C-alpha cells in the first residue's frame, strides 16, 4: 500500500474514491521481478503471501447530488503528481490544516471518575495524574482535550456562525465536496477512545500522545420511539434533564451508584447470572425509558446476547471513564482514527524504525530443518533476513487460512448537511446506538463528527455506522440510514427535509473481522511468525492494544512493552559509530545490506547505536 495503517487508515475524499475504485476492481499485483525463486536455497521452502486484498467486500457508493457537474472539478490545493491515494497523514494536507487551525498547548483536564455526589466536569478536578490540570472550554460548550505535555494538545476550532439557523442548513453540493476534499479525513474503521481505556494509558506512558490531538465526544444519544434524544450521563445531566421525571432521576442515580461497586453486592445480581442484562434490568424497578438508556446508550450491549455480569462490567467501565477529560467517557483523535498508527510510526522512526510504503512482499522463506522463518523476498527481488516476522492476517494466503472462519463488519460512511439532533451548537461529536430494527439483527453504532474534528468540511457532518454483519453492509445498515436521514433529495414531504439531515454522499462496505482467531487455526505457520488481526467491531481499542502487547511479550519476554522514551538530552551517541555520512545526506551509492538500531539503557541514560539507515 502507499498509505499507513492498512484498514485503520483515514483518507481525503479523493483518496477514498480511489480506494473505492481499487476495491471494486480487486486487481492482482503483477510480478515485477519474476526470477525471485532463484533466491531460495535447496534447504528452504516458501510460504507465498496473498497478492489480493480480500478484507473489503460489497463496496457500494452513492451520490445524492449532481455528480456530473463535478467531473472537471479539482481538489483545492491538490498537486498534480501526488500519489493516487490521499491518506489523512499526507504532510501537505496536515500542513494546510495546521496553518488554518494552529494547535494550542493545553494541560490535561481533570482526571476524575464519575462520582454519585459530584457533577463531572462542573468543577476543577482535585486528583491529578502527574500533570497540572486545566479545563478549557470552547464558546460552543464542547471541550477539546489534549493528553498533557506527555499527552494531548488542545486544538482551536473554527468559530461557529450564529446567524445560520440549525433548522436551515446551508445547501452543500457535490462540487463543493470534491473541491474541499482535503478537508475530509474519512476513517475506514469507526472507533472512539475510552478516557480510561488501554490505548489512552499507552499513549501517555509511551509519550506517543505528543504527536496526537483529541476532542471530547460531547454527547451520548438514544433512538427511542422514532426520535433521537440526548442521554443524561453525569449527575448534573441527570438532574438537569427535562425528559426524566424526578422519580426516574432517583431510580437512575440509585442504579448507577450500585453499578460502580456492584462487586461489593453479589447478592443483588448472583441470582441473575444466567440471565441477560436486559432481563436483569427489568427486575430493578426501572421504567422502560431508563432500561433503554442503560442498555443501549450507557452499557451499549446487545439486548439478547449480553449476560448480566457483562452488562454490569460495561456500565461500570462507562461510569469510570466519565469526568476524566469531559462530560462523556470518550475522546476522538483530530484528523481521524488513522492518525493513531501514524503516531506510533513517528516515534518508532525517531529510534531507527524504517517504514517502507509501496513495497510488496512475495513470500516468507522457511528453513526446512528448523521450521523457522529466515527471511522474506520482496517485490523487487531483494532478500531481507530477520529473527521475527509480524504479518497482518490479510496478507496470508488461502492455503494458510484454510481452517480460519472469519466474521464480517458492516460499515457505512455518510456525508450529511446537518446533525441528527440539532442544538444551539453545531460543533458536536455524538455517539448513538440504534436498537435492532428486526429480531435477529444487531444494534447499530452511529458516530457523528462535526467539522471541528478536522474530518469534514464546514457545514457538513461525517457519520459512521457500524455493526456485525448478517448480510451485505447496505442490507444491514440502509434501514437505519432511512430512519435517521433523508435520502430523497427531490421529494420533500411532511417537512421531512427540515426534520431529518439530508445525505449528500454515502458508501457501504463489508470489512473482515479477523480478531479473536486462534493462532493454531493457521496452517503451517512458523513459530517466529506472528499474526496481527485487522480492526475488530468493538467501540474501543482494547483488543488491538492487548494483541500488540501479547505479540511483543512472546518475542521479548523480559522487556517492557512501549516504555517511556528517553528525553533528547539524555541520549548519548557513540562517537565511534557516527560517520560523516550520518551527519547529513550522503551521495555515496553504497549501502549496507541490513539496518538496525540497538538501544541500551543505564541509570536513566540511553546510548543509541546507529548504523547507516540510508537504504
From TrEMBL:
Pfam family, one: RAE1_2_domI_C
Main location per the UniProt record: cytoplasm
An annotated Gene Ontology molecular function: GTPase activator activity
Residue ranges constituting the RAE1/2 domain according to the UniProt record: 409-536
Entry's Gene Ontology BP terms: intracellular protein transport; small GTPase-mediated signal transduction; vesicle-mediated transport
Localization terms from the record: Cytoplasm, Cytosol
UniProt feature, compositional bias: Acidic residues: 571-580
Cellular-component GO terms for this entry: cytosol; nucleus; Rab-protein geranylgeranyltransferase complex
Coiled coil: none
Claim: Transferase is one of the keywords in the record: yes
Keywords: Cytoplasm, GTPase activation, Transferase
Region (Disordered): 87-163, 559-615
Residue spans of biased composition, Low complexity class: 581-590
Assigned protein family: Belongs to the Rab GDI family.
Stated name of the protein: RAE2 geranylgeranyltransferase
Organism: Nycticryphes semicollaris
Lineage: Eukaryota, Metazoa, Chordata, Craniata, Vertebrata
Gene: Chml
Amino acid at each position: 500500500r502507499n498509505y499507513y495503517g492498512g484498514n485503520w487508515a483515514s483518507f481525503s475524499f479523493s483518496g477514498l474514491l480511489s480506494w473505492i475504485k481499487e476495491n471494486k476492481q480487486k486487481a492482482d499485483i503483477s510480478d515485477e521481478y519474476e526470477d525471485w525463486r532463484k533466491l531460495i536455497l535447496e534447504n528452504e521452502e516458501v510460504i507465498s503471501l496473498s497478492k489480493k486484498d480480500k478484507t473489503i467486500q460489497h463496496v457500494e457508493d452513492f451520490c445524492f447530488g449532481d455528480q456530473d457537474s463535478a467531473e472537471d472539478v479539482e481538489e483545492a490545493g491538490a498537486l498534480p503528481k501526488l500519489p493516487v491515494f490521499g491518506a489523512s497523514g499526507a504532510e501537505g494536507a496536515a500542513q494546510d490544516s495546521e496553518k488554518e487551525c494552529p494547535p494550542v498547548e493545553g494541560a490535561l483536564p481533570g482526571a476524575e471518575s464519575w462520582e454519585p455526589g459530584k457533577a463531572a466536569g462542573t468543577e476543577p478536578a482535585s486528583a491529578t495524574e502527574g500533570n497540572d490540570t486545566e479545563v478549557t472550554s470552547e464558546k460552543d460548550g464542547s471541550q477539546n482535550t489534549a493528553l498533557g505535555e506527555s499527552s494531548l494538545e488542545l486544538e482551536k476550532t473554527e468559530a461557529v456562525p450564529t446567524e445560520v439557523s440549525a433548522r436551515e442548513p446551508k445547501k452543500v453540493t457535490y462540487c463543493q465536496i470534491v473541491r474541499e476534499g482535503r478537508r475530509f479525513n474519512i476513517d475506514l474503521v469507526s472507533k472512539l477512545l475510552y478516557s480510561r481505556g488501554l490505548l489512552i494509558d499507552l499513549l501517555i506512558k509511551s509519550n506517543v500522545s505528543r504527536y496526537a490531538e483529541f476532542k471530547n465526544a460531547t454527547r451520548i444519544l438514544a433512538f427511542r420511539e422514532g426520535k433521537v434524544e440526548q442521554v443524561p450521563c453525569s449527575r448534573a445531566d441527570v438532574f438537569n434533564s427535562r425528559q426524566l421525571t424526578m422519580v426516574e432521576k432517583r431510580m437512575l442515580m440509585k442504579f448507577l451508584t450500585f453499578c460502580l461497586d456492584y462487586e461489593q453486592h453479589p447478592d443483588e445480581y448472583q441470582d441473575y447470572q444466567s440471565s441477560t442484562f436486559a432481563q436483569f434490568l427489568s427486575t430493578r424497578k426501572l421504567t422502560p425509558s431508563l432500561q433503554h438508556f442503560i442498555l443501549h446508550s450507557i452499557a451499549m450491549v446487545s439486548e439478547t446476547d449480553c449476560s448480566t455480569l457483562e452488562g454490569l462490567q460495561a456500565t461500570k467501565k462507562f461510569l469510570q471513564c466519565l469526568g476524566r477529560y469531559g462530560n462523556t467517557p470518550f475522546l476522538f483523535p483530530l484528523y481521524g482514527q488513522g492518525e493513531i498508527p501514524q503516531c506510533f510510526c513517528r516515534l518508532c522512526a525517531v529510534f531507527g524504525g524504517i517504514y517502507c510504503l509501496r513495497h510488496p512482499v512475495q513470500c516468507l522463506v522457511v528453513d526446512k530443518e528448523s521450521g523457522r522463518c529466515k527471511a522474506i523476498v520482496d517485490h523487487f527481488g531483494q532478500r531481507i533476513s530477520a529473527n521475527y516476522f509480524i504479518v497482518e492476517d490479510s496478507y496470508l494466503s488461502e492455503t494458510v487460512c484454510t481452517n480460519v472462519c472469519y466474521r464480517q463488519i458492516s460499515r457505512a460512511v455518510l456525508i450529511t448537511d446537518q446533525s441528527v439532533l440539532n442544538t444551539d451548537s453545531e460543533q458536536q461529536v455524538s455517539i448513538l446506538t440504534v436498537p435492532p430494527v428486526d429480531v435477529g439483527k444487531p444494534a447499530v453504532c452511529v458516530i457523528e463528527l462535526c467539522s471541528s474534528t478536522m474530518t469534514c468540511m464546514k457545514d457538513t457532518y461525517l457519520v459512521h455506522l457500524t455493526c456485525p454483519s448478517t448480510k451485505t453492509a447496505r442490507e444491514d445498515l440502509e434501514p437505519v440510514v432511512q430512519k435517521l436521514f433523508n435520502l430523497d433529495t427531490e421529494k420533500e414531504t411532511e417537512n421531512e427535509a427540515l426534520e431529518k439531515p439530508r445525505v449528500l454522499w454515502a458508501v457501504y462496505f463489508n470489512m473482515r473481522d479477523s480478531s479473536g482467531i486462534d493462532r493454531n487455526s493457521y496452517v503451517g505457520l512458523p513459530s517466529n511468525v506472528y499474526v496481527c488481526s485487522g480492526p475488530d467491531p468493538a467501540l474501543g481499542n482494547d483488543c488491538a492494544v492487548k494483541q500488540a502487547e501479547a505479540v511483543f511479550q512472546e518475542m521479548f519476554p523480559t522487556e517492557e512493552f512501549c516504555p517511556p522514551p528517553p528525553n533528547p538530552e539524555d541520549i548519548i551517541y557513540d562517537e565511534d559509530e557516527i560517520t560523516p555520512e550520518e551527519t547529513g545526506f550522503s551521495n555515496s551509492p553504497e549501502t549496507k545490506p541490513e539496518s538496525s538500531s540497538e538501544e541500551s539503557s543505564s541509570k536513566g541514560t540511553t546510548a543509541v547505536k546507529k548504523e547507516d539507515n540510508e537504504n
